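pipeline/complex-builder :: batch 7 item 3
reading input block
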Amino acid sequence: MTLFSAGVDVGTMMVKVVVLADGKDIVGIRMAKTGPDVNTIATGLIAEILKERGIDPGTQLHIVSTGAGRKNITNVIDSKTEFVAFARGARAADPNAHMVVDIGGQGLRVMELDDMGVMANFATNDKCSSGTGCFLDAMAFALRLQESEMADLGLKAHKVANIQATCTIFAESECISLVAKGVPKEEILAGLYGMVAKKIAGMVTRMGLKQDIVLAGGVSAYPGVVKAVENELKIKVFVPQNPEAVGALGAAVIAALVAKKRAGGG
Amino acid sequence: MVTTAGIDLGSTYVKAVVMRDGKRIGWGVEQTGPDYEVCANSVLGKALDMAQVKREELDFILSTGYGRRTTKLAADTISEISANTEGTRFIAKEHGIHTIIDIGGQDTKVIALDDNLVQTNFAMNDKCAAGTGRFLEVLGRVLGITIDEMGPLSLKSTKKVEITTTCLVFAKSEVSALMNKGERKEDVIAGINRAIAKRLAMMAKKVGVKEKVFFDGGPARNVGMIKALEEELQVKLVVPDQPQIVTATGAAVLAAKKLAHKTAAAAAAAPP
């Protein structure tokens, strides 16, 4: 009998759900904006996946939650920190991964994995919003750009604008005055990618750069940011197909393991 | 008769002070607009009107602040740290000040002084909006109140509400969430004041807090901020009547000193 498991990653911006069969085959990935009732959102996303794949909605599903709002999800067999979930998810996406960088809505996280895929070290930047998803959101607002334009418009720049501020709030003012000075938006954006990349490179280098880096989190879906990170670190990075769902994927893998262990033990 | 002016081009406000023979006779304060030169002209005009002095009567103009290099009005520039120290010396000489705390729109400074009010050390935060005037301004906007309403309202606080985040971006969400939870505005503002005071105190302790402590900059107009900082530092603060124009005052004083120096040098160089 197939064992179904689900990982629910309740982020500050998005709720991500991954459903797995037997802990390895992806049944479906779904996500939605975070709202006041994340439990209903998560349940709805799981139901959509099951319906789409023609699976009986009453099928037993083992759920593990993760993310900032993980405690708000009921009916789970366990909940794990983002670090543990992203580490596990990165290994599922790339069996050689030795480092994971998660660029999330409100946090930057770097995790080092040992050869067994167990998290050996981690660093986070949770006090400051600079370089996170909400940093780029604020800049999109200041530059009057759509999210789709934020992803790669900066790659077209011939020059990179120098942005002096680090703080999101100050960088916002700086972007506005750069626009007023007539600096092209793509140059400003290229400067912003560089800022995010520098911040990440600083965290990675402090921990000790390891080959086989997986870039995860919503911002990792931006080609401009990925390229800037590669330039900064001078190595190629691997970005999975759904980088924002890596945490949910990891949680789903863990859910299957826990369920198997319990079934075996009982 | 010597008439000088100091213009402090800050990130959020532009301030000007006119002095004549060691007396402050006029000043002006204006919100910073997109063009510093326009602001400098306008605010200096206000200070001159108040002083009833014509522009051509000014012997020397010195500019200071973040935008000090953007105006052609001034004959020379001076750093905010020097101008603020000089302004404190002018305003509160007899108080035995040993520490200055200045909260600006985008930066915060702590200056340590020796017994002669000469600067011995300083710390500055201009990298992060937490602990600056911007923190108050942005969160005030979230609450729908002006900076001037903040102080009196925060004194009505009866419940301790903590702001747990550091980053202003996160604090915005936190303040909204607190209001949605039904917390009262006065309690939230008092919490915001305390959050800034905490960050400032950390910085001040690195430099060393020695009494008396002088507190200036726009946020020193907020009585709640004064109270929170006094509680955090466990000292009584000396706050001037016009905390926003201390740095501009210092620039005007230094303008007179520079002028005297130049005149003396010219006299020495002149043929007999």
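note: The radius of gyration of chain A is 19 Å.
queue -> next item
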